């Protein structure tokens, strides 16, 4: 297990780890915070209200990264759960457009409303903006999970200006990608990949005029959560917190350290670091340039070669997928190339 220092934090990275797109490696400070919380729980030192500060710190960190006010951010456990709130708000017969082969946590929640006449059309990512003309909503990952393809955000912004709603899943981008996302009607992300937090925390930033029904109506969403935990009438918070679900405490303890730190970094520098390593690999493999930190490698036997070399990667959509984050180095990229040669 190697100890690395990157962007002011210490990471314990096992050899050549290139699978952040599946699970991110936390800074030691994040893992320590979670370990301390587990130790307190184990010895009877946990107190439910004491986790509120971590939830709010993580919420503020997500807000800063996504470019929305914290009052417009709701917490959840999974991306699909939060996308489902947006799907439920669509009118009967609504038309939704998604990229072909989009991650199903984006597409499934809308397809589940087929009984209301909601239709979901899949189109090539490059054709998304053109196909979206006149639709009710476009749902799209900023960076595609399968191959790292980056959506044309300027074109999608034009779609929104034309009257269609836009939902962006930033799970594969937030934490390394340098872009303004605050213009979208909804921005959602899970925390356990590039945001380097434990699995079990996700966030949804919503536009002021996007009216969502708090379908999960959690006690944690109460106007005064510790004074409104029993009985009716319904008395929820007056902002996006009304959509909150009860938090997975340890997940937010980690996110409360990771997200504010990521938000404090020079985003252009982070973007350049991650995409620069990916660009090095693409160039050496004779691939077309791309502005993504994720590289999908289509070579016979690649998965076996990387595994034999002790390189951690993933297989997605018939190709080997690797991703470069803050803790990766030129040496990691070189080991990958040596293994493929």
Describe this structure in words.
The chain has 341 residues and is of the alpha/beta class. The chain has 2 domains: 2-28 and 266-340, Aspartate Aminotransferase, domain 1; 48-264, Aspartate Aminotransferase, domain 2 (3-Layer(aba) Sandwich), CATH 3.40.640. The protein is built from 10 helices and 14 strands. It has helices at 28-42, 52-66, 79-89, 104-111, 128-131, 153-161, 249-264, 267-284, 302-308, 330-340, and strands at 2-6, 9-13, 16-17, 73-76, 95-99, 119-123, 137-141, 165-169, 186-190, 202-206, 294-297, 311-312, 314-316, 319-323. The chain has a 7-stranded mixed beta sheet with strand order 4-10-9-8-7-5-6, sandwiched between helices. It has a 3-stranded antiparallel beta sheet with strand order 11-14-13, with helices on one face. The longest helix has 18 residues, at 267-284. It is globular, with a radius of gyration of 20 Å. It starts with a strand and ends with a helix. The model has no long low-confidence stretch (mean pLDDT 97).
Q: What is the number of domains?
A: 2
The main sheet comes to: 7 strands, mixed
CATH architecture of the largest domain: 3-Layer(aba) Sandwich
Shape: globular
Residues in helices, as a percent range: 25-40%
The H-and-E topology, N to C, reads as: EEEHHEHEHEHEHEEEHHEHEEEH
| CATH fold name of the largest domain | Aspartate Aminotransferase, domain 2
What is the topology, as strand order, of the major beta sheet? 4-10-9-8-7-5-6
Highlighted features:
341 residues; alpha/beta; Aspartate Aminotransferase, domain 1
Structure in a nutshell:
The chain is an alpha/beta fold and 341 residues long. The chain has 10 helices and 14 strands. The chain folds into 2 domains: 2-28 and 266-340, Alpha-Beta Complex (Aspartate Aminotransferase, domain 1); 48-264, Type I PLP-dependent aspartate aminotransferase-like (Major domain) (Aspartate Aminotransferase, domain 2), CATH 3.40.640.
């Amino acid at each position: 297990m190697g100890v690395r220092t990157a962007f002011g934090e210490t990471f314990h990275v096992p050899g050549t780890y290139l699978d952040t797109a599946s699970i991110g490696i936390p800074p030691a400070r994040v893992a320590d915070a979670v370990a301390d919380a587990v130790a307190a729980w184990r010895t009877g030192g946990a107190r439910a209200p004491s986790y509120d500060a971590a939830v709010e710190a993580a919420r503020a960190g997500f807000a800063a990264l996504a470019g929305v006010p914290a009052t417009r951010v709701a917490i959840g456990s999974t991306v699909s759960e939060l996308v489902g709130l947006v799907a439920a708000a669509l009118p009967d017969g609504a038309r939704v457009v998604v990229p072909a082969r989009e991650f199903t946590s984006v597409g499934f929640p809308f397809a589940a409303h087929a009984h209301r006449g909601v239709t979901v059309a899949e189109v090539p990512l490059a054709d998304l903006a053109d196909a979206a003309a006149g639709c009710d909503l476009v749902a799209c990952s900023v960076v595609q999970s399968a191959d790292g393809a980056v959506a044309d955000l300027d074109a999608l912004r034009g779609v929104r200006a034309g009257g269609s709603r836009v939902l962006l899943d930033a799970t594969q981008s937030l934490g390394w990608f340098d872009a303004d996302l605050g213009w979208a009607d909804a921005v959602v992300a899970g925390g356990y990949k590039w945001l380097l937090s434990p699995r079990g925390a996700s966030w949804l930033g919503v536009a002021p005029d996007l009216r969502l029904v708090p379908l999960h109506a959690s006690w944690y969403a109460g106007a005064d959560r510790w004074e409104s935990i029993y009985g009716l009438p319904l008395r929820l918070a007056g902002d996006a917190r009304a959509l909150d679900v009860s938090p997975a405490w340890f997940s937010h303890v980690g996110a409360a350290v990771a997200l504010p730190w990521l938000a404090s970094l020079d985003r252009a520098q982070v973007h350049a670091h991650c995409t620069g390593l990916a660009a090095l690999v693409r160039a050496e493999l004779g691939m077309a340039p791309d502005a993504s930190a994720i590289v999908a490698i289509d070579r016979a036997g690649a998965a076996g070669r990387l595994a034999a070399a002790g390189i951690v990667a993933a297989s997605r959509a018939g190709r080997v997928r690797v991703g470069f984050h803050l803790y990766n180095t030129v040496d990691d990229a070189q080991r990958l190339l040596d293994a493929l040669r």
